[in-house]
UniProtKB/TrEMBL annotation:
Keyword Ribonucleoprotein part of the UniProt annotation: no
The keyword Phosphoprotein appears for this protein: yes
The Histidine kinase domain, residue ranges: 253-469
PROSITE patterns xref list: HIS_KIN
Organism: Rheinheimera tilapiae
The protein's name: histidine kinase
Lineage summary: Bacteria, Pseudomonadati, Pseudomonadota, Gammaproteobacteria, Chromatiales
Length: 470
C-alpha cells in the first residue's frame, strides 16, 4: 500500500522535496528581516532619545547661566522686565527639570535641585546678590551633577543597545544553525527516499547480470516511475531466466542430437574416401574432400558446444596436486599435429614444478589458448607458454605473433559467441566460445583471464590463478 505522504510520481516527489527544503530557508529569511527591523527600530528610538537628552542637558546648562545672569541683573537694576525674565527662566527650568527627572534614577538630586529653584522663585525679588550667591552656586553645581547623570544614563542606554544587538545576533545565529540543520535533514530524507529505490534497482540490475540470477523478491517502494521500472526489471529477469533455461536445453539436446548423424556422415565420408563402395573420379573425390572438411568442422563446433555446456553445469572444481611438466606435455602432444601443419612450435618456460588445481579445468584453459594461438598465430612462429609465480598467484601466459587485438575489443572477446576481427589461418571457422570457456574456467578456479601487452609477442592471453604452496 502506498504511503499517504508518498507522491504519485517522481516529479511530484522532487517538487515536494524542494518545497520542504525551502520552508526553513524562507523562515530564516523572515526571522532575519524581523530581527533586523527590531534592531533598526530600537537603534532609531535610542538615537532620538539620546539626542533629546543631550539637547535637554545643554539647554538646562545654558538656562542655569541665563537664570544666574537675570537674577544678578535684577538684584542691581530692580526692573520689572528683568523680574519677568528671571521668573520665566526659572519656570522653564522647573519644567525641564521635571522632564529630565522622569528618565533619571536620582530622586534626591532632583528634589534638591527643585528646592533650589523654588527658593530662588520665592527670594530673588527681595534678597540681595550676596544672599543669593550660595543658592546660585548650589544650583550651578547640582546642574553639573544632573548633566553627569544624564551622560551616565546615555552610556547605560548605549550599553543596553549593544547588548540588544548582540542578543539578536546570537538568537539569529542559533536560529540559522537550527534551520540549516533542519534543511539538511529534509534534504537527506528526500535523498534517502529516492536513493533507496534506486539502490534496489541497482541490486536488481546486478543480479540480472550474474549467472546465478538470485533476483531479490522485495518490491521497489518509491515514486511511481521507479516502482514501474522495478516491475519491468522483475519481468525482464524472469524472461532472461526462461531464455537461459531454453538456451541450456537447446545446447544440451542439439549437441547430443547432432553427434549421432554427424558420426554417420563422417563414417560415410570415410567409406567414400577409401573407395570401398566403388571407384570415384576426380570431381567426386573433390566433393568427398569438401564433405570431410565440413564434417570435421561441424564435429569441432559440436565438441565446443558440449564442452561449454559441461562447463556451465560444473558447480565446484576438484583441486589436487599435479606435475606441471606432465600436464603441459600431454596437452602439447594433442596439439602437435595442428602445430606441425603450420610449422609452429611450443616455446615453454615452466617455473612451477607442481601446481594445485583442477586438472580438467586447467587442461580446458590450456587447450583453448593453444588452439587460439595456433589458429591466429603467424606461420612458422613460436607459441610461447609461460607458467610462473607472481606474488600470491600463478600466471599462465600463452602468446603468439599475429594481428594485435585492439584495447577496446579485449574485454568483449571473453563473452560467449564473440569473435575478433583477425582472420583464422586454420580450416575451421571459430564459434566464439574459446576465450569464453577460458574465462569461465579461470573464474571457477578463483582467478581471471585477460589480454595483456608483452614485448616478445603481438598477442598474449594471461590467466591469473591462486597459488598454493606445498
Amino acid at each position: 500500500m502506498r504511503s499517504p505522504i508518498q507522491p504519485a510520481s517522481l516529479r511530484q516527489f522532487i517538487l515536494l522535496s524542494f518545497f520542504l527544503a525551502l520552508i526553513p530557508l524562507a523562515v530564516l529569511l523572515w526571522q532575519s528581516n524581523s530581527a533586523l527591523s527590531d534592531v533598526s527600530r530600537f537603534a532609531v528610538a535610542e538615537a532620538e532619545s539620546s539626542v533629546d537628552s543631550v539637547k535637554r542637558a545643554e539647554n538646562m546648562q545654558n538656562l542655569v547661566i541665563d537664570i544666574e545672569r537675570a537674577v544678578r541683573q535684577f538684584g542691581i537694576l530692580r526692573t520689572d522686565s528683568l523680574s519677568r525674565l528671571a521668573t520665566t527662566h526659572l519656570m522653564n527650568y522647573q519644567q525641564m527639570l521635571q522632564q529630565v527627572c522622569l528618565d533619571l534614577d536620582a530622586p534626591l538630586l532632583c528634589q534638591a535641585q527643585a528646592a533650589q529653584v523654588t527658593t530662588l522663585l520665592q527670594n530673588f525679588l527681595h534678597a540681595s546678590n550676596e544672599e543669593l550667591s550660595p543658592t546660585l552656586l548650589t544650583l550651578r553645581q547640582q546642574q553639573q551633577q544632573l548633566t553627569e547623570q544624564i551622560w551616565q544614563r546615555l552610556e547605560q542606554r548605549l550599553q543596553t543597545q549593544q547588548n540588544f544587538v548582540v542578543d539578536a545576533q546570537n538568537q539569529l545565529a542559533w536560529q540559522s544553525v537550527t534551520l540549516v540543520v533542519l534543511t539538511l535533514l529534509l534534504v537527506l530524507w528526500a535523498q534517502a527516499r529516492i536513493a533507496s529505490p534506486i539502490k534496489q534497482l541497482d541490486t536488481m540490475i546486478r543480479s540480472i547480470g550474474q549467472a546465478s540470477h538470485h533476483f531479490p523478491h522485495e518490491q521497489v517502494v518509491g515514486p511511481r516511475e521507479l516502482t514501474e521500472l522495478g516491475e519491468q526489471l522483475r519481468w525482464l529477469a524472469s524472461r532472461l531466466q526462461q531464455l537461459e533455461a531454453l538456451r541450456l536445453i537447446l545446447l544440451r539436446h542439439a549437441s547430443h542430437e547432432l553427434k549421432t548423424p554427424l558420426s554417420s556422415i563422417r563414417e560415410g565420408c570415410a567409406l567414400l574416401s577409401e573407395q570401398l563402395v566403388g571407384p570415384l573420379n576426380a570431381q567426386q573425390m573433390e566433393v568427398v574432400t569438401l564433405l570431410n572438411g565440413s564434417a570435421d568442422r561441424l564435429s569441432q563446433l559440436t565438441e565446443q558446444l558440449l564442452d561449454y555446456n559441461r562447463l556451465l553445469q560444473q558447480a565446484k572444481p576438484e583441486f589436487s596436486w599435479h606435475d606441471s611438466t606432465q600436464l603441459l606435455d600431454s596437452c602439447f602432444a594433442d596439439h602437435a599435429l595442428s602445430l606441425q601443419q603450420r610449422q609452429q612450435f611450443i616455446q615453454l618456460d615452466c617455473q612451477l614444478p607442481r601446481i594445485y588445481t583442477d586438472a580438467m579445468l586447467f587442461r580446458r584453459i590450456l587447450d583453448n589458448l593453444i588452439n587460439n594461438a595456433q589458429a591466429y598465430g603467424g606461420e612458422g612462429s613460436p607459441v610461447w607458454v609461460i607458467l610462473r609465480p607472481h606474488e600470491k598467484f600463478m600466471l599462465l601466459d600463452v602468446a603468439n605473433n599475429g594481428t594485435p587485438i585492439p584495447a577496446e575489443l579485449r574485454a568483449k572477446l571473453f563473452e560467449p559467441f564473440q569473435r575478433g576481427k583477425a582472420p583464422r589461418f586454420d580450416a575451421v571457422q571459430g564459434s566464439g566460445l574459446g576465450l569464453s570457456i577460458v574465462s569461465d574456467c579461470a573464474r571457477l578456479l578463483g582467478g581471471m583471464a585477460e589480454i595483456v601487452d608483452v614485448n616478445y609477442a603481438d598477442v598474449c592471453i594471461r590467466v591469473r590463478l591462486p597459488m598454493v604452496e606445498e
